[in-house]
Amino acid sequence: MIGDKAPLPPSKLPPALRFPLVVVLSLSISSLLYSLSAVYLGSENDLAKVSRKLDNWSDVASLVGWKMFELTLGWYGNYDGYDLASLSLLSHGPPAYLLGTFYQVRTVSILSIIIIDSLAMYIPFRLLRPLSLAHSVSISSPSVTVPNREIVTDTSVGILTTLLAASIYSVTLYSAYASYLPIYLVTYFDDIPSIAPAHTATPFTLFPITLILGLAAKSFIFTPATASLPSSADARNAAFNPASATLAETFWYNLWGYDTKTKVVIKRTAAVMLASGINTFIQTWVIIEGVDAIGAIAYSGVWVIAAAITGTSLGIVGAV
Questions:
Q1: pLDDT in tens, 35-88
Q2: pLDDT band of 141, cuts 50, 70, 90
């Protein structure tokens, strides 16, 4: 994307080595921090009580494979460290919330999971890739040209978009609790201790929990879209003439003839839906003892829907 990068020096390592190094760093950081967490916080004992034994190599391969896919998506999707940290929160937050709310895993263990997963994504990308213009604008020189700088750096806009995204997540989760989700929790989560939190939850009690997801969604979707620069495709779309265009050109224009800002919103919303849906499914079905695949699909579907509504709403706000 034109102008997507901040005026910061890139890594001096050969390009062919950067992504493999990202993978090695991420896996090493994750392994180290989880080991420290087990020793000093006792989080391993908390998770062992609710986790199934991964005796099957296919289960281990699915976890490692998904981790590799997340890193690949981030690297070749041209995301920076803030993007990966936000995407990690949006994808790893739902299974962590499930463990803390319904399986009585200690809060300190839940927080350690979220922090470790985010740092394992953020640190390698921050070291090997400069921040995008959208995320570096607050620390860049005022001479740096950034589209909609006044919006990107406006505190009130940031707060309101965060609150909007958090509200959508809380209302979507509450709607699932008020409709189908408790039945699926009882039926397909065999070892779940209690589903009482599903019956006592309200949008207001859920809001403090979803606030961090709202901040991550704002950072991952709204900020990059708002700061995106027009591309050459925008000029071609503006000059599109249906009277002289071929059938293929007309089809492509109707399918993907959006401006750059809208395309950023669509791509990043799709990325959140994909990451949160698949990661929540894998972490729920593969990791937690007694969870059936149907139950994992039902639970992960809530977060996919929330991501879709949030991305659409942030896109509408950004287009105003």
A1: 999 988 888 888 888 988 877 787 788 888 999 999 999 999 999 999 999 999
A2: low
What is the CA 267 to chain-centroid distance, rounded? 12
d(CA 36, CA 115): 13
Predicted local confidence at residue 103, as pLDDT: 94
102 pLDDT higher than 90: yes
pLDDT band, residue 143 (cuts 50/70/90): low
Q: CB–CB of 261/228 below 8 Å? A: yes
Cβ-Cβ contacts under 8 Å for 11 (sequence gap 6 or more): 18, 127, 128, 129
**Residue 126: Cβ within 10 Å count:** 16
Phi then psi for residue 249, to 5 deg, are -65, -40
The one-letter amino acid code at 189 reads F
Q: What is the pTM of this model?
A: 0.91
140: its two tokens:
């860049």
**For residue 251, which amino acid is it?**
F
Length of the chain as a residue count: 320
**Residue written as tokens 């620069």?**
229
The closest of 79, 80, 86 to 216, measured between CA atoms, is 86
User: Given its phi and psi angles, is residue 304 left (phi above 0), alpha (psi -120 to 50 degrees) or beta?
Assistant: alpha
Q: Distance between CA 211 and CA 207 in Å, rounded?
A: 6
Q: How many CB atoms lie within 10 A of CB 80?
A: 24
CA–CA dist 167, 172 (Å, integer) = 8
What is the dihedral sign for C-alpha 284, 285, 289, 290? positive
Task: Estimate to the nearest angstrom the gap between the alpha carbon of 89 and the chain centroid.
Answer: 6
**Partners of 51 in beta bridges:** 288
pLDDT digits (tens, 9 = 90+) for 170-218: 999 999 999 999 999 999 999 899 999 999 999 999 999 999 999 999 9
Cα 71 from Cα 123, distance rounded (Å): 12
